[in-house]
Amino acid sequence: MAVELDVFVGNTTIMDEEVYQLWLDGHTVNDAVKVRMEGGVLEEFEASADVLLSDTMDQYRTFQMCERLLHSPAKLANQLLFQIPPHRQAILIERYYAFDDAFVREVLGKKLSKGTKKDLDDISAKTSVTLKSCRRQFDNFKRVFKVVEELKGPLVENIRQHFLLSDKLARDYAAIVFFANNRFETGKRKLQYLTFQDFAFCAGLLINNWTVGAIDNMVEDMDVDLDKEFLQELKELKILITDKDLLDQHKSLVCTALRGKTKAFNEMEANFKNLSRGLVNIAAKLTNTKDVRDFFIDLVEKFIEPCRSDRWTAADMRLYLTHYTNSAHILDTFKHQVVWDRYMGVIKSCIFKMYHD
């Protein structure tokens, strides 16, 4: 009996985006086949289960062969083994380096070392992200960190150029690298309400304002390390709380500006000195590595929690910090306006992001 076959020959590598995502998510071939069958692919293409299994296995093999190229994305464009159109290459790279917010939240601020990698079993169980996917994401974080930590120039741009990522994903990776380098504490119970995107927003502010690169954009490690000279200058702000006349004058200016504008005025007036001491002491201690690590926990404990217990709204917080910052410019004997603005500009925006009323 004669069998007729329709054969199509081409050199463009066929990649199904759904199968690619199943592979990235760490599913086995059999699991992927099951998901595809449940999605109605057999009916759609009038194919048999054997053909579907063969197609899935073939695509998994292709992805595994492409993986080494994805570790250095620029190589994907220059190789001849796989004929992949540029727009499809961009999708492969972006999805390979994408990550689960639940996973990154567990490793954010930790050292990207073998010690942390040993914890991936527990993180996988906690987040319901497959172990294989956890390993891929962790290895991606570590790979990006190693490539960019010694480069000159802006961190986000270096990541974007070397790994061909979108601007948004490059900024997220910059936050991961920055947190890993400075080892910010993010795992304490009091910080659990904060999402990765909350921290990434703050990381962007710190990178753009408190690193050496905020002043000179072609120095070594510019966007990874905090500006030590600036951290030393922050000690000068202590005069705002150690000089009693200055403290009283600052309080008077802020309270005059706030009176009649908020229901929380009495609490703001009563707690002004404690809140000011909290913010200024955070600044003065940032020359110590441990206090840098505790930056976010200190913001929550010294400022956000007291305001929350007094039932401040987000609008109250914005009003208070705006007048608190601006009033320092009117203080006659306060001579550290530039450092103050560089510090409070970041602090204000971080607190606005972190204060969920």
UniProtKB/TrEMBL annotation:
GO terms for cellular component: nucleus. GO terms for biological process: platelet aggregation. This is Fibroblast growth factor (acidic) intracellular binding protein a. GO terms for molecular function: fibroblast growth factor binding. It comes from Seriola lalandi dorsalis. It comes from the Eukaryota. InterPro entries: FIBP. Pfam families: FIBP (PF05427).
